[in-house]
Amino acid sequence: MRDNKEAALKADVVILTVKPGQVVKVLRNIKEEVKGKPVISFAAAIPISMLKKAAPQAKIVRAMTNIAVMAQSSYTVYSFAPDVSDECRSLSVEIFGKFGAHREVDERYIDAITALSGSGPAYLYTVIEALTYGGLLIGLPRDLAMEAVAHTFIGTARLLLSSKNHPAELKDMVVTPGGVTIEGIYELEDSRVRTAMMKAINAAFKKSRIISEEIKKESEKILED
Ligand SMILES: NC(=O)c1ccc[n+]([C@@H]2O[C@H](COP(=O)([O-])OP(=O)(O)OC[C@H]3O[C@@H](n4cnc5c(N)ncnc54)[C@H](OP(=O)(O)O)[C@@H]3O)[C@@H](O)[C@H]2O)c1
Predict the structure, then answer these.
(1) Of 13, 55, 98, 159, whose CB neighbour count within 10 A is largest?
(2) Which of 14, 19, 29, 216 has most ligand 1 atoms within 8 Å of CB, for mutation?
(3) Domains along the chain?
(4) What is the model's pTM?
(5) Are the beta carbons of 64 and 44 closer than 8 angstroms?
């Protein structure tokens, strides 16, 4: 269906996944059709207050997920506008549950989460690629190296979540004196890999703030027209 008004009219829940710069325009265009309905926006940067101005009578939910939604394994955070009913809340949570893990957060954290887990797959794929290359360097077949790395990521994350230990404690369980792993760790520390990751998150967050301000100004203009 290509007509937004028709789609919104027929829908019980409207999910907005247009680019952030288009959200206010698209939502304002369907404001009559979404009256009283849950509208879930996945757009980066656009706050609930602005979505509410575009469609005052819609039940606004702001969420951020990541590309792992394609494998039902994303991490989704969300915040509700104050007037959202319990029924709308539970319906939204049911939808987020289909995407993977999820958690309600204070809206002020959503921009930072965008830079961390929204963009996160891009950072981790870079690391996965690098580790796979490491495997190739020491003679492993490509498919075996990549599979080993991918499952190591899954297992490492699952153990962290299930044990609730600090990552440093879990890491130390593998690092034996004079052993193999400490050689690898020594090289990693020398390459300042932790600083590199922290700088990446900080840079992404700063950039998202800059883009966010630009989009907000443009969206305010659309709302004034
Ligand atoms: N990519 C991510 O990892 C990610 C993660 C979390 C949140 N988000 C958020 O998700 C949103 C979409 O990002 P994306 O990367 O998926 O962008 P995208 O690939 O460009 O998708 C945008 C979609 O919006 C449609 N569209 C454009 N104008 C429209 C209109 N006027 N009415 C209805 N539909 C329209 C496009 O359809 P056509 O192709 O037919 O024009 C396209 O399917 C953004 O707000 C982003 O912040 C993205």
Answers:
(1) 55
(2) 19
(3) 4-107 (3.40.50.720), 120-191 (1.10.3730.10)
(4) 0.93
(5) yes
